[in-house]
Each structure stands twice: as structure tokens, then as C-alpha cells.
Amino acid sequence: MKKIISLLLAMVMVFSLAACKNKDNETEPTDTTATDQAEATEAPEVVEAQPTEAAVVPAEQEPVTITFSWWGGDTRHEATLKAVEKFMETYPYITVESQYGAWTDWETNMATAFATQTAPDVNQINWNWITSFSSDGSAFMDLTQFSDTINMTGYAQSALDQCNLAGELQAIPVSMTGRILYWNKTTFDNAGIATPTSLAELMAAGESFQSVLGDEYYPLALGEYDRMIFMVYYLESVYGKAWVVDGALNYTAGEIQKGLEFIKSLEDAHVIPSIATIDGDGADSLDKNPKWMEGKYAGIFEWDSSASKFKDALAEGQEFIVGEYFKDFGTYQGGYSKVSLAFAISETAANPKECAMLINFLLDEVAGVEIMAAERGIPLNQNALQICKDKGLLNELVAEANGKILSWVSYPLDPKFEDASLKSDPDGVYYDAQGGLSYGDYSVEDAAEALIEGINAALAN
Q1: Stretch 140-155: mean pLDDT, rounded?
Q2: pTM reported for the whole predicted model
Q3: Helices 74-90/352-363 angle, 10° precision
Q4: What's the CA gap between 431 and 453, in Å, rounded?
Q5: Pairwise CA distance, residues 443 & 438, whole Å
Q6: pLDDT given at position 54
Q7: Residue 44 phi, psi dihedral angles, 5° rounding
Q8: Each residue of 92-143: pLDDT tens digit?
Q9: What's the distance, CA 159 to chain centroid?
Q10: Cβ atoms 148, 174 nearer than 8 A
Q11: Structural domains in the chain?
Q12: Alpha helices in 269-412 (DSSP H)
């Protein structure tokens, strides 16, 4: 209307035309954003979704503070803190208060926080937390309401579906992960043998380590939870069936006893140290254990996303490599993959819009993706994955492990496998059964009974 009036006045007031035109140019600059976006969308060469640009924030926006929690190793902490700093530079009105630490006791503390509605606003979560803490949608917000803020076009629907429960998208998946063997090649070289590619070679390595390097040297180290996952990998390879099917344990007492006997045989053959030995080392986790750092424990069975922290923990001059799945475990390809980590917004968050902005920044915006790279695993988001590939940001070790896992494993993981009552340290059922067997408090039959009883209780809950 203003421009129409100006044009009418221009018919009789030529000099006023120039004045009005100058004033209009100062107060109403042309906005070409919509046109540019339309052209980009219509361009025939664009066939995939693109990462989002940083949101435009009004200058008069009121300051906002949000809290963000995660666990991990030092490299994840460093990268995430750097990304958070960049986020706050990009969105100066948002202050992010970070809460982070090691995994030990983290899940127990977070369970309390969710139960008492005192959890941070944005949370790095394990996939099973959706089932454990928010089966009815009460702990985490439905993120579909922030689809205008979180760019979901880079995710396969099947990946998003894994975080959908109670009819709500309760988290955004970060990556897919699985467990695989890693070796300290230098220690194996010192023992005069190659890193094992089969169970037979691993069993033989126990004797070589003990006779050549000494009693403190072991080719593999497994904590209680590690033993449980390694046992399931073994059993699935032998019997060719998933651990849990339709909410019910899919293995008999006799079959589980066979798995426990396998774990015990590793201890007996000096392949793995006893739980008493590991406890005596006094470390919070294997990556912080001096025996790992020094190469006395020369192998681990770990998540692909954890490779960096174990490699970085090694003393200088040691070579860390990705291993292979053992084909001689059985006829089948045991093991599983899962959504490794996800980001969720607590129902109690006072500023969910800004929380969604932080998630999108870390997972889809170029500035955040470049910093985070593969610290939480190889990105599921195809936009982020392409950015990392184009800029050479992928950790080759993690990428190699992730590729081997996804090309090998063939069984699903039931969300209850990681239920807190099962995997919490030190009171979980897995710790009770595997630790009890190792300490000699349980027979194989006793340990199997403890596992079956605890797992059935978790599945029924």
C-alpha cells in the first residue's frame, strides 16, 4: 500500500518520489532468502537434503540458559565442549551449561534425575533409556513438534523409528554401533605372535603371553558387561538365534550354561584376567587402567565409537588396530548392532526450542558437525556423514570398525538387554552372574540361574 501511494503521489509530486523511495529502501530491504531457497530446491542437481544453515535470531531475543549432559572419554568431552562454545558464539543469546563425566554410575544418577524430574534439558541417552525411563513418553519430549528446527531429512525413517515409542519420537539417533575386537599389535609382536583372527588363535595366545611376557600379560581383557556381550556373540554364532524374541528370553538354561562355560574357559586358559584381577587394578574403566595403557592387557571387545579413547590412552609407541569377527565361533554370524547414542529433550525443559537448536547444531549444521565429526560414532545423518567425508573428518579407525560391524552382525538387540537392573555396575544381574562366576561364588549352573531369573524379571517389567 505504501508503494502504491508513493506511485500515485509521484504523478503530481516528482520531488516527493525520490524522498519516499529513499525512505523505503532504508526501512524495507529486499529479502531474497525465500527466492534463493526455492531456486535451490528446484535445481535439478539437488537430489538429497542439505544441512541446515544457522538460524537467524532477532537481535532483541531475551537471554536463555539450557543445560546439556553427556558421558564419555576425554576426546568426546573436548570435542563436545568446543562444539558448545561454537554454538554459543553462533547464538549469543543462548548459554549452555555442560554436565559431563565418565560412564561409571552415570546411568544410575540419570535414572534418579528422570524419576525426580531434575534431569538436564538436553541429554545424551542410550537407546534403551527410552524404554527404561519413558515408555509412556513422560520423560522425553516428542521431537516431531520441533521439525521446523531439527532437520530430520538426513535420517532413514527406519533409524528414527527405533527412537519412536508411545507414538512419540523421543530422541534423535546419532549413530549405529556394535562391539568388535581391538588389539594392541605391539604387545602381540613382543609375544612373537600375530593378532588373532580366530578363537583357536586367541586361545593359543593366552599361553604365549604367559610364557613369553609373564603372568601379568593377557591377550584380552573383559569386564562383567563385556563378558556378557561377548557371551551373547558366541551363543548367537553357535545357535543362530537372537537373544530375546518377542519379549522372551530365547535361550535355555543349558544353552546359557554353555556360554558361561565358554567365558570360564577363557579365564582358565590365561586369555582374560579374572574379575578379581581387574578389580585389583583400581581403575574406573579399562581405558584408564594402567595395564591397558602399558600394553599388559592387549585386547578389548568394545563399541566402535569407543576406539579413539582406548587408542589415545595407550603409552607412546604402541600400535592399536581393529580386529576381526571369529568365524570359528560357530556356523552363524553372531553379534548385533544398535542405535548407539541419541539426543533427547527432557519434558521439564523450560526452553525446548533452544534445546532443539542445540541438537540440530551438533547433528546437522556444518559448524557443529565439523567439530563433532565421529566422536559419537559414524554419523547416521546423511548430511553430516557427507560433510565428514568431504572434509576428511572421519576417524579411519572408527570408520573401519563400524564398516566391519555393520557388514557382519545379523541379530537385533532387544532394548531390555541394557535395562539398568541388568547392566548397572555393581548391582546389575550381569555383574552378579559374571562376577560371581569369576570369583568362584557361583557355579556355572548358579550363574545361569541368576541370569535367567534377572533377565526374565527385566523383560516382565
Answers
A1: 96
A2: 0.71
A3: 120
A4: 14
A5: 9
A6: 65
A7: -65, -25
A8: 999 999 999 999 899 999 999 999 999 999 999 999 899 989 999 999 999 9
A9: 13
A10: no
A11: 64-177+339-399 (3.40.190.10), 179-337+411-460 (3.40.190.10)
A12: 275-281, 290-293, 307-313, 352-363, 366-372, 382-390, 396-408
